[in-house]
Specification:
Pfam families: FAD-oxidase_C (PF02913), FAD_binding_4 (PF01565). It is a single chain. By secondary structure, this protein is α+β, with helices and mostly antiparallel strands. The chain folds into 5 domains: 8-99, Uridine Diphospho-n-acetylenolpyruvylglucosamine Reductase, domain 2; 106-224, 2-Layer Sandwich (Uridine Diphospho-n-acetylenolpyruvylglucosamine Reductase, domain 3); 228-342, Alpha-Beta Plaits (2-Layer Sandwich), CATH 3.30.70.2190; 350-427, Alpha-Beta Plaits, CATH 3.30.70.2740; 442-467. 37% of the residues lie in helices and 21% in strands. A 7-stranded antiparallel beta sheet has the order 15-12-14-13-17-18-16, with helices on both faces. The longest helix is centred in the last third of the chain and has 21 residues, at 407-427.
Length: 477
């Protein structure tokens, strides 16, 4: 690492952290810390004096106290799968990465209360499995659920694939345990549904990206486990047809739509080209597709009949031109893999800029049409992969470099295209960051598009809780 020689106070603080955590609780060699300092896309590498890996809330609190006393910056980190430079050091000041990857326990499950308490380093998939063993559903579901952690997901308030049914991460939280920037432990870890005793402080830390404290554990709500599930990949002529189908599917199914993902043909092309084992499930290509999944907790609810009725009506109205219904769990997984591998396929394709945007659900089709026309007017040869959670209005907007354009020219050109896209989103009442957060990458956009009163209040909260700016500095504000 090229970090300047730290002052004596920092050296002493690092020594104290090592002693407090023991030999298994820290990493210092640059080769060992590299993955903790590297952004998921592999483009940016930060610098850190140490990677602290506490195994308990008490150890987290001790690390935070030591760092705060020495004025060291702290960068809380979950699975490090973020896409906006929010979970690695980015500021030119001595920093400690505070990884929660040893705090993975499921502390408790109360099936009758439909609740569980998990530590922040617990991977989403592990939480899902633990809930399933208890006969319940942990409703958070992300493409990166095999590596994303509960704490990191709450810190960005990610939504995922099932937001249409269950809501964002915020809506799954009953209580939080958080270590504040001075080392104090905020104990808000309860599993009550009703608790009207003043400010609901847990919401300060959800979506705060580690700038106000370190989430160490969360009490999460559970749902009845699905007893039936039906999944289909449908070919549709355009997003307008998909949007009309969405409302009708919710009505005809009795609002049992669990996921509703929109994908252009580019999704299949990239997945087939870059991801081993993926093949086109339909006999002929379509300009657009919808991946729809219905689920119910009732064993007597005939989802297949509902899905077939939805398809029959949609095909009669020419909203759907072809489709395939998964006949096994393996087929279902194969359909979902097309969608879930888009981030990796896009990364392997290279030369693109990824935007995570949202508009009201009723405006998704109009937004896609206006955005494509606007961007192609500026750069006719760009390639677009615009996919995502149509059911909640969140589109992952990937703008790929024209094949004939040099990489250096594209880097400059892409800034202008993204700026124009964000302007259109603001005009349509949307958000330039639907679920990935702000991090260090989108701070200027936040200043440009957020209401001044909102920024003033955010800065006041930050100053009140973290006046020394030691907790994930350089992120959001």
């Amino acid at each position: 690492m090229n970090q300047q020689t730290p002052p004596a106070a920092a050296v002493e603080a690092v020594a104290r952290i090592k002693q407090a955590l023991g030999p298994k609780g820290w990493l210092e060699d640059p080769a060992d810390t590299l993955k903790y300092r590297t952004d998921w896309r592999g483009r940016d590498v930060g610098e850190a004096l140490l990677v602290a890996r506490p195994a308990s809330t008490g150890e987290v609190a001790e690390v935070v106290r030591v760092c705060a006393e020495a004025g060291l910056a702290m960068v809380p980190q979950g699975g490090n799968t973020g896409l906006v430079l929010g979970s690695i050091p980015t500021e030119p000041r001595p920093a400690v990465v505070l990884s929660l990857d040893r705090m993975t326990r499921v502390r408790s499950i109360d099936p009758d209360n439909f609740a569980m308490v998990v530590e922040a380093g617990c991977v989403i998939k592990a939480a899902q499995d633990a809930a399933a063993e208890a006969g319940r559903l942990f409703p958070l579901s992300l493409a990166s659920e095999g590596s994303s952690t509960v704490g990191g997901t709450l810190s960005t308030n990610a939504g995922g694939n099932q937001t249409i049914r269950y809501g964002n991460a915020r809506e799954q939280v009953l209580g939080l345990e958080v270590v504040l920037p001075d080392g104090t432990v905020f104990d808000g870890l309860n599993t009550l549904r009703k608790n009207n005793t003043g400010y609901d402080l847990k919401h300060l830390f959800i979506g705060a990206e580690g700038t106000l404290g370190v989430i160490t554990a969360a009490a999460m709500r559970l749902m009845p486990a699905p007893k039936g599930r039906e999944t289909a990949l449908l070919a549709v002529p355009d997003p307008a047809a998909a949007q009309a189908l969405l409302g009708r599917a919710r009505e005809l199914s009795g609002d049992t739509v669990l996921a509703y993902e929109l994908m252009p043909r580019m999704c299949l092309d990239l997945a087939i080209r870059h991801i081993e084992g993926i093949a086109d499930p339909l006999s002929a290509p379509s300009p657009w597709y919808v991946l729809v999944e219905l689920a119910t907790a009732s064993p007597i609810d005939d989802l297949r009949a509902k899905l077939e009725a939805i398809l029959a009506e949609a095909m009669e109205q020419e909203r759907v031109t072809d489709g395939v219904i998964a006949e096994s769990e393996a087929q279902r997984a194969a359909l979902w893999r097309i969608r879930e591998e888009q981030a990796e396929a896009g990364r392997r394709e290279g030369g693109g800029v990824a935007c995570d945007v949202s508009v009201p659900v009723s405006r998704v089709a109009g937004f896609l049409a206006r955005a494509e026309a606007m961007l192609r007017e500026q750069e006719p040869e760009i390639r677009l992969n615009t996919f995502g959670h149509m059911g909640d209005g969140n589109i992952h907007y990937l703008i790929l470099r024209p094949l004939a354009m040099a990489a250096e020219a594209w880097q400059q050109r892409s800034y202008d295209l993204v700026d124009r896209l964000n302007g259109l989103i603001a005009e349509m009442g949307g958000s330039f960051s639907a679920e990935h957060g702000i991090g260090a990458q989108k701070r200027e956009d936040l200043v440009r598009y957020a209401a001044p009163s909102r920024l003033t209040l955010m800065r006041a909260v930050k100053a009140a809780i973290d006046p020394a700016n030691v907790m994930n500095p350089g992120k959001i504000l």
